[in-house]
Amino acid sequence: MDKFNAENERIKRDYAEFLREADQKSEATVRGVEKAILRFEEYTGFCDFGRFNRNQAKGFRAELSSPADESKRLGNSTVLSTLKAVQRFFRWLSVQPGFKSKIDTNAIAYFNLSEKDIRAATSSPSKPSPTMDQLKRALASMPSETILDKRDRAVFALLMMTGIRDNAAASLLLGHVDIDRQMIVQDPKTVRTKNSKLIESVLLPLGLEIEGVLFSWVGYLRDELRWQPDDPLFPQSRHRIDPQRGPVVDGIRRQVWSNSQPIREIFKRAFADAGLPYFTPHRVRNTVVEYAYLTCRTPEEFKAFSQNLGHESVVTTLSSYGQIPLARQRELIRNAGKSRDLDAKLERLLEVLDRSED
């Protein structure tokens, strides 16, 4: 069986360029699409794209959904994303010169999953998020002796107080911290924010101790190292070769992290040292929303939290991060109406006390 089709490769290069330049997709998204198309090619034996037909679409969908080799079974969400990526590719190809008469546009619809399969692919059990107390416990367990320890603690404290996305945090500069206004300005010109949005995040009032972890780090960089606003807030670790010990990590260097992997490693170590299960940095966003549930008293206050996370609509906050933890859900349902009963009892008690004083 062929493992390469020169004409297909040319078409895939053109499509990748379209995704990057016209559709403005990220490199990670483009790589994911290329992987999906390659899966389709492998299924068809690298048949020319111009010979696409409904049987190929139906067969590929069936092969992904119920593979003959169970060891190759993909998750429901991966099946859905793969089919959608390939479907979008053939829609694009169907309007390209030389393919308008070759591609049966009706056949493209045969990549669709049933509504039942789509629901299975898009729904999943709720993932646990750390409580604010667990985050405080993890932060308290982190060492603070070396400069790298202090940097790591500052990263952890920042995510606690903002719920900032880890990739954005990894690209922050020193000038993005506004201590006077107690906020972080995520400027998309230099910060890797989602959809290149400007996000101004006010720090949650979690206490002077947690604020001090971040502010003392900022002060160290500004006052002792004399770093400037365009220097990294969380610089990379500096590596060198020691004649006796070999490769060692020794200090920091003036360069931002290229991705969020170092922050995930910081979280793994922090939770492990605290004897807690690992939670990804992204789950802290759920923690911030849960904190909002407990503290907000007006719709305006919750809207402020929503904007802090970079959401244009409160609906996004509620639908993406607003799921009530199961334990809290159980507590609310089991105690529904009891608070009103208690309020009524307190009012009657106060009336009795007032009468006795008269």
UniProtKB/TrEMBL annotation:
Family designation? Belongs to the 'phage' integrase family.
Q: Answer yes or no on keyword tRNA-binding.
A: no
- Recite the UniProt keywords alphabetically: Coiled coil, DNA integration, DNA recombination, DNA-binding
For this entry, the protein name equals Site-specific tyrosine recombinase XerC
Q: Which PROSITE patterns match?
A: TYR_RECOMBINASE
Q: Report whether Coiled coil shows up as a keyword of the record.
A: yes
Classification from the root reads: Bacteria, Pseudomonadati, Pseudomonadota, Alphaproteobacteria, Rhodobacterales
InterPro entries from the entry? Answer: DNA_brk_join_enz, Integrase-like_cat_sf, Integrase_catalytic, Integrase_recombinase_N, Tyrosine_recombinase_XerCD
